[in-house]
Amino acid sequence: PITRLADYRPSDYLIDRVDLDLRLHPTETRVTATLALRPNPAGEPGAPLVLDGDELTLLAIALDGQPTGPGAIDVTPRSLTLHQPPQRPFVLEIATQVNPSANTKLMGLYRSNGVYCTQCEADGFRRITYFLDRPDVMAVYTTRIEGERADTPVLLGNGNPVEQGEVGLTRHYAVWHDPHPKPAYLFALVGGRLGRVASRFTTMEGREVEIAVYVEPGKEDRADFALDAVARSMLWDERTFGRAYDLDVFNVVAVSDFNMGAMENKGLNIFNDKYVLASPDTATDADYANIEAIIAHEYFHNWSGNRVTCRDWFQLCLKEGLTVFRDQEFSSDERSRPVHRIAEVRTLRARQFPEDAGPLAHPVRPQAYREINNFYTATVYEKGAEIVRMLRTLLGPETFRRGMDRYFATCDGTAATVEDFLAAFAAESGRDLAAFSRWYEQAGTPTVAVSGTYDPAARTYTLAFRQSLPVVATEATAGSAPQPLVIPVVLGLVAREGGPVAATSERVRDGVFVLETAEDTLVFHEVAAAPVPSLFRGFSAPVKVEHALTRDERLTLLAHDGDAFNRWQAAQSLAMEVLVDRATADAPLEAEAGPEAAGLSSALATFLDGEALADPAFAALVLTLPGEQEVAQTLRSEVDPDAIWRARQSLRMQLGRDLGPRLLSLREALAAPAGAPFSPDAASAGRRALRNAALDLVAAADPQAGTALALAQLETAATMTDRLAALATLSLVPGEAREAALARFADTYRHEPLVLDKWFALQAMIPEDGTLERVRGLMRHPAFSLGNPNRVRSLVASFSLNNPTQFHRPDGAGYDLTAEVVLALDGKNPQVAARLLTAFNTWRMVEGGRRRRAESALRRVVETPGLSPDVSDIAGRSLAAA
Ligand code: ARG
Ligand code: ZN
Description:
Elements: E1 3-4, E2 13-23, E3 29-39, E4 49-52, E5 57-63, E6 66-67, E7 73-76, E8 79-82, E9 90-98, E10 108-112, E11 115-119, E12 139-148, E13 154-157, E14 160-167, E15 171-182, E16 189-192, E17 195-202, E18 208-215, H1 224-241, E19 249-255, E20 262-263, E21 268-272, H2 285-300, E22 309-310, H3 316-334, H4 337-357, E23 368-369, H5 378-395, H6 397-411, E24 415-416, H7 418-429, H8 438-441, E25 447-455, E26 460-468, E27 487-490, E28 492-494, E29 512-515, E30 519-524, E31 532-534, E32 544-547, H9 551-560, H10 564-585, H11 595-611, H12 616-623, H13 628-635, H14 641-670, H15 682-701, H16 703-716, H17 720-731, H18 736-748, H19 753-764, H20 771-778, H21 789-802, H22 804-807, H23 813-826, H24 830-837, H25 848-862, H26 869-879
Bound molecules: arginine and zinc ion.
């Protein structure tokens, strides 16, 4: 069945209060829900009450304390219907039984490593009890959790703890009360043996909050960084958005089996332990950055998601896009803003652009879905965040902040829509945001073509813009031509010899030109000499830019642009031209380098000499070539992943040769002094990033020298970042040294699943024919399990999503392996299976032979009987006519 935004109607009934009583048991957990219901004045009078369920067993039901009469209700595992509900407030008491140990979908109540935990977003609460499981039904919850004291000494729920006590000889209970009305998807509980670290935070409103992070016992020392990140997030949200925390406790629990990254349940965030646990010996700098960002993300949901929630799941971007924007801002403030912006754009281009260009493309606010869990996508999250950022650029930071205040003030305690969000900014700014709102409705990445002309006689410089949007066949846009978008272009002019050009244009305010028609021109006056335009500074809009700059103009921007993002972009564009040329010509690995590549090398040499040591993190990004997927996106059709890999490899080899001595001396200069204490801060991480980027290029040019350096680094490394970078370098050179190093690493970390995940991932990404067999072999490794999402992602998804040459093997074996795992997984965990299947997103872009093999693998999936809705939805849409 398809759910459509256009069909939204308010619920016929509301639930004001929920009293839950859960008796935890590994296989027979009993749940008694007492629901205070009433007819919704906005609903249909007299309508039957239809509660959602999913794989539920009803034990008992009572209406206002009385058993229901014969024929009064209909019950299936998927629904409970009360045919003639009282047309006044009434109470339903419903007892159900669930089996947490058999719950391999990891939705609803399940056990992870013996710990009872829940995941209810989007529709998992109905796997615990019959309910109106929709976000616009908001209730106040009181939860009593009872369990064996030995198995579940820790019992956590939403809100504040109110009571605890003994039950008989072996059991105990805890009661939690959450005063803030919330939708069922924010419900959570945890019961288990857990270690705890805690601290206190006093809010700007004077509330004393106890913050705690719960982890597997013995791993408490790995929770300190996350705990600190919670406190920093609380402070930041007060200072930046005026948002204070609103309960007496804030708990974070790490579990090892989790479908996504983490979940913002009210007062009780549940995390994939990968995004909590960190120690210098086991976590990379990237892990530290992710932990900080995801802790912040879930905490920020307390306002953007929980206090103001979504009316229906079509509004998912209302909480996710906004919250991603907020966590990105947090990381930018806590770390380096330009470096973080580049990282954001790289993710957007690597994940969202391909999604928007493929068969799974959808608007940031979709109009229809078959399976909502398939819409937790890069488009909803990352493009959704870009829309919020554009709004700030268009309105300016002060008006934007006032709009946010108004949004929180007017929508607090409600289930809101994108329209409500935009209305707050329209009211605050006095602007009509109707045209801007098209960003939420139209799928596909816009292209903006720009050309510049200088008129020396008139001393004018003219920029001509043309925007175009691909026609994406989605429910919303089918048949209608896309309408122009409102595109903020942050720009400036740079003098050829460096320095900004002071020129004026009445249409540029605070450095922003707004393109809102299909075509437009912008004229600068009093321009003394032909400038180089720097466009879309800071990546001011999620668009592809077609701007025919010459190589020299790009070199000018790389050297002189005042905008760090565009300096990086200039280097990327220079590299992309080389990569596209070489991939198109299908140049052999050793083909003579052209003048473009040489020009890039010498520009990078100058750049490194001048400023690598001043900002190593930025320099590391400048040295990193566009990824294979990004090159594929630029080529668009008849893509040969092997040709792209060769193009990239040969450019890496050349940069390594040309810059070798410099890279080696940078490595020396940036080496941490022996015995220096470890710090995960951005500056230290940046130094490690540049040293390892240098290692990568040196090894590309001279595998022998690279191997020696990597072996030495592996020996002496004091951080997981350096150890893993060395291992990654070794992994690219076939032979004894690699296999020995891999074996030793596995042995050292045999008791560390999260570190073994890195080891799985690294091997799954080796761009060699033998990798497929290696992955099959590793699937039989004792540490691997199809039941654990982190293992599947690190081994199989790394292969299918991050190893383009091997996933797209010409013989189709990469497609077959992926399809095989998807089918094997689907019966256990459909959400993870469906996510893996999105690897086929790019199948139409690849050349004919591969395309036919990918298509037949997809057809085998789609024709398999008994598929989950999750997998059948992705497979079906992937195959749908282009
Ligand atoms: N709301 C969570 C977050 O972004 C994600 C939960 C997704 N869950 C799911 N079953 N799709 O923070
Ligand atoms: Zn989120």
